[in-house]
Amino acid sequence: MATYIVGDIQGCYDELMQLLSLANFDPKNDELWVAGDLVARGPKSLQTLRYLKKLKAKVILGNHDLHLLATSLGIHKAKKKDKISPILEAEDSQQLLTWLRKQPLLLEHPEHKFIMVHAGILPSWTIPQAKQFAKEVEQQLHGEDYQSLLKNMYGNHPTKWQASLSGIERIRYIINVFTRMRYCTLDGELEFYNKLSPAETDSSVLKPWFEITPRDHNQPILFGHWAALLGQTNQQNLYALDTGCVWGNSLTMIRWQDKKLFSLSCPAYG
Question: What pLDDT does 45 receive?
Fold first, then answer.
């Protein structure tokens, strides 16, 4: 059995199918892990959700997935550019959305021990802490009061972690780390506005989260979310898998056993 991990699909179902075929993925014997952002901007988010649910793929939630859940509750209006109306109007919409809501923010492979998140892990958090904080959010998202969480998760504050954070501010911060983080200030505050590559950013002001030291992570980490990286982190045991498929770049997947990368060029949808 081979383990494949793919970056942000964002509704690019046809490209996903082509990439799996290119890698000779065997749905009966191989396992597929997806680093969040299953939906939005691509043309076939509905088909993507149906396929991954049926496959029993290991998926985590990205910012677009959480936004879909909030939109389904009327917290936000569906944006035409997100192309998620087919999901909201489908006969199996409720089953798909319930399945999506029950997915985690962080997964650890039981055998290979890699960690998969959507955006990253705060440099000062240990892996055990990250697991604990992810579970705090998951317990609320999977519980009866999930609507309140989805309604109040939006916002950029607080920007700095404190163990004393509580209530929705604590939950919002944890969600932002796992699903939105790219850059941090040099003293570790989150910065949400810069989506450029590190080469285009003043490193005396901002650094990628994974360049903030000390970073207390001793397991391989796979993440998506940051298309401008184009898969480059220049760090050992750190794998950036969002290579901007929906923006006309490529969809990328790694086979864990031999670390072989599979990549497929994509048309621009976003």
Answer: 98
DSSP 193-254: S--S-GGGS-TTTEEEGGGSSS----S-EEE-S-GGGTT---STTEEE----TTBTSEEEEE
Which residue from 64, 65, 60 is spatially nearest to 221, judged by alpha carbons?
Answer: 60
Q: In this structure, what are the phi and psi dihedrals at residue 80, rounded to the nearest 5 degrees?
A: -55, -40
- Spans of all domains in the chain: 3-265
Cβ distance 183 to 206 under 8 Å? yes
| pTM of the model as a whole | 0.97
**Which band of pLDDT confidence, cut at 50, 70 and 90, is reported for residue 216?**
confident
Task: Look at residues 153, 36, 44 and name the one whose alpha carbon lies nearest to residue 103.
Answer: 36
Q: Give me the half-sphere count of Cα atoms (radius 13 Å) on the Cβ side of residue 200.
A: 6
Fold for domain 3-265? Purple Acid Phosphatase; chain A, domain 2 (3.60.21)
